[in-house]
Amino acid sequence: MKLEMGTGTALRNIIGRRFGHGWKRPFSTATCDVENQHSANANTNAKSINLYSAINQALHIALETDPRAFVFGEDVSFGGVFRCTTGLADRFGKTRVFNTPLCEQGIVGFGIGLAAMGNRAIAEIQFADYIYPAFDQIVNEAAKFRYRSGNQFNCGGLTIRAPYGAVGHGGHYHSQSPEAFFCHVPGIKVVIPRSPMQAKGLLLSCIRDPNPVVFFEPKWLYRLAVGEVPEHDYMLPLSEAEVIRKGSDITLVGWGAQLSIMEQACIDAEKDGISCELIDLKTLIPWDKETVEASVRKTGRVLISHEAPVTGGFGAEISASIVERCFLRLEAPVARVCGLDTPFPLVFEPFYMPTKNKILDTIKATVNY
Amino acid sequence: MAILWRRSRNIANRIRKCMNKGFMGCAVVNQSCWSSTFQSSSLSNLRPVPYQNSRYLRSLPWSRAALFSVLRSKSTVAEKQLDSFFSSDSDDDHRSLDFPGGKVTYTSEMNFITESSRMRVPCYRVLDDNGELIMGGDFQQVGKDVAVKMYSDMVTLQIMDNIFYEAQRQGRISFYLTSTGEEAISIASAAALTEQDIILPQYREPGVLLWRGFTLQEFANQCFGNNADYGKGRQMPIHYGSKKHNFITISSPIATQLPQAAGIAYSLKMDNKKACVVSYIGDGGTSEGDFHAGLNFAAVMEAPVIFFCRNNGWAISTNISEQFRSDGIVVKGRAYGIRSIRVDGNDALAIYSAVSAAREMAINEQRAILIEALTYRVGHHSTSDDSTKYRELDEIDYWKMARNPVNRFRKWVQNNGWWSEQQETEVRNSIRKQLLQAIQVAEKTEKPPLTELFSDVYDHPTSNLQEQEKQLRETISRHPKDYPSDVSV
């Protein structure tokens, strides 16, 4: 994983104020405080930490900078089943960090209500596999809250965090990547970080974004991914994809944990003289078509990879959009290397997954088309 | 704390132990401190409490100690049935077990709690069917101004429903749904609240908005989806919302508002606001998962919400006998640790009193309250329904005429000398005129401009939306006849 450093930016103390009946809160927009990822600053304090610690830091900062931020969900009080919420209840108290009953539709519905009153409601769903009872609240309520009210009301302060993706032994119900369901919903944003440093900055942006956001955290990386993470308060922009590896022969697009697999494939492909450009989408909706299109115009080839089953996966949306925009430039069909159209299996996980070699084979096939 | 009722020494001991451990389960305590501000049934005469202003009750100093957690409503008949199950003559000291959740007595007698009490939970009412006060009842007095406003708003709601319903039939609006038969519920409950209390409606409570001052023109604008509609023409008719009236925009999915109500109430709690949330639901809606989620969350979070269930007997064509097997909704409160009451939903004074009391408890004790109002849906479910297909005309007629909540309240108001036949005619004519006028104006008002199709999806339009707007405008210029002329592009 590429080491990332960021410039120090002024600590932004975001204290909400209440206006009128208490509906309005000034939200910072995610485009502020953009971290310049490519320049190192010797004055930045950064520590090498893993993904769950980075998330934990983001949550600490979110609660510290906004007295009306709340963290809630199943088991968050003692620190959470993945330790993302460690220390929050002790530091900020039981009225701001609390366990909820075991009921996802209740967690999200409650969160919508809290957010409608101008609070920052950070809801945790224990596993993305269990988010479906909340699907009605997310799709029919959160996503439409502002639109249907003519902007009299909104629940922009809502952020829903959930661990997603393969973990090696998760089977059907601890490995799912449900992002595609949510990418079909106008009114919400879907964000997926690839690393600790990205996670902290993106999560803070999601929390402070004035729209409801679903933030999927790659659980595989909670302990496994370790990187330099600046200790201060910083935000990374939403809806901006990032070219994390420059290349000229083929564009690869992915998100989350899959990027590290794709990067290994890129490294192997380089040995065969294929120069790969790798893009982290980061925000799936609204997604940054411009960056991907610019890359495809350069390379003429694109390969999309995700763990979720290939049929109806988000790769299909990217593929269709790229074909619309870059048809005459394409040298080969858009390739997708994804999970199989099966429930996520246990002993068959290594066969199900879009592995480095599947990607490498497809890179070569696409380049040699 | 006084225990007014004892069946045996051992019951009292058990109760005391439960109380000491802060466990609310098995005790029945009849002392209700809130009733001290009401007329008590122990008085043989009705002693009217002087009515100063609509907020006098709220200004009374409440003793928190007096409102110690085990307050009960007066109605305890059903409770006695249940609690007899727990009575025993044995000394319970060494017959108790420790488990997560507290101590429980054990027994070697195998007894299942019956699926229902022998008697149904009684229904609280203040006025009889002739609009006469029932002697010896508890109720909160309503003064002339409030009563007259309540009555005339009920009349306004009735006429508004008739006229908008007709407008839909004439093809002038696409859809409508009436509150016919349930006018007392929305008006009287709204009257018992303050403007700071936040409303999360289902969809059959426009009376609450009406009470709060939403104008007939504003109602008409939403139904026509014109440029003056606060919702910007995005939703079907009757999906009102008004920030200035603290009335959250209606959405069609059933019961989704209930867990949201818990969240909003939690926010009020964090703010230490002297306000509560009132969320409405029908009998059908209580079968939704969100009902369970909403009540459970509100109870656990100790959030000041009043869950108001309009049990009108029908969920479109589904009678309540096909909806649940419990004794209505009121008994479900206890399953969540929520205090609950059943009221006569066609009795404006009963609703007013119950909601007033519920509000005090919700705010002062920071807890959820459940109110089940029994009523009848006189109208069809909506303009898309013909209820004569699944129920008897006689039944509908009976409720429309003999059990009419508006007429019933009118009698009480008239008997107090606060209303006359002449006022009735004047008000009805005036409202009718205003409504027809409002409809005319709303019909002629332009629809919102095309930009409002794309705004508010997010806080500001995203690039995909900007792109789509551009493409759409190109299409419109090529094929203008495909598009309605009352939306300016």
UniProtKB/TrEMBL annotation, chain A:
GO annotations of cellular component type: mitochondrial matrix
EC number(s) given by UniProt: 1.2.4.4
Catalytic activity, reaction form: N(6)-[(R)-lipoyl]-L-lysyl-[protein] + 3-methyl-2-oxobutanoate + H(+) = N(6)-[(R)-S(8)-2-methylpropanoyldihydrolipoyl]-L-lysyl-[protein] + CO2
Localization per record: Mitochondrion matrix
Gene3D superfamilies hit by this protein: 3.40.50.920, 3.40.50.970
InterPro entries for the chain: THDP-binding (IPR029061), Transketo_C/PFOR_II (IPR009014), Transketolase-like_Pyr-bd (IPR005475), Transketolase_C (IPR033248)
Required co-factors: thiamine diphosphate
Keyword terms, alphabetized: Mitochondrion, Oxidoreductase, Transit peptide
Gene Ontology MF annotations: branched-chain 2-oxo acid dehydrogenase activity
Gene Ontology BP term (one): response to nutrient
Domain Transketolase-like pyrimidine-binding: 49-224
Subunit structure: Heterotetramer of alpha and beta chains.
Protein name, per record: 3-methyl-2-oxobutanoate dehydrogenase (2-methylpropanoyl-transferring)
Native source species: Durio zibethinus
Taxonomy of the source species: Eukaryota, Viridiplantae, Streptophyta, Embryophyta, Tracheophyta
Name of the coding gene: LOC111286735
UniProtKB/TrEMBL annotation, chain B:
Domain Dehydrogenase E1 component residue range list: 154-449
Biological processes annotated in GO: branched-chain amino acid catabolic process
Keywords: Metal-binding, Mitochondrion, Oxidoreductase, Potassium, Transit peptide
Any Pfam family the entry gives: E1_dh
Localization in the cell: Mitochondrion matrix
One Gene Ontology molecular-function label: metal ion binding
Essential cofactor(s): thiamine diphosphate
Region Disordered, residue ranges: 454-489
Catalytic activity: N(6)-[(R)-lipoyl]-L-lysyl-[protein] + 3-methyl-2-oxobutanoate + H(+) = N(6)-[(R)-S(8)-2-methylpropanoyldihydrolipoyl]-L-lysyl-[protein] + CO2
Keyword Glycoprotein: no
Subunit architecture: Heterotetramer of alpha and beta chains.
Entry-linked PANTHER family: 2-OXOISOVALERATE DEHYDROGENASE SUBUNIT ALPHA, MITOCHONDRIAL
Family: Belongs to the BCKDHA family.
Name this polypeptide is given: 3-methyl-2-oxobutanoate dehydrogenase (2-methylpropanoyl-transferring)
Gene designation: LOC111312232
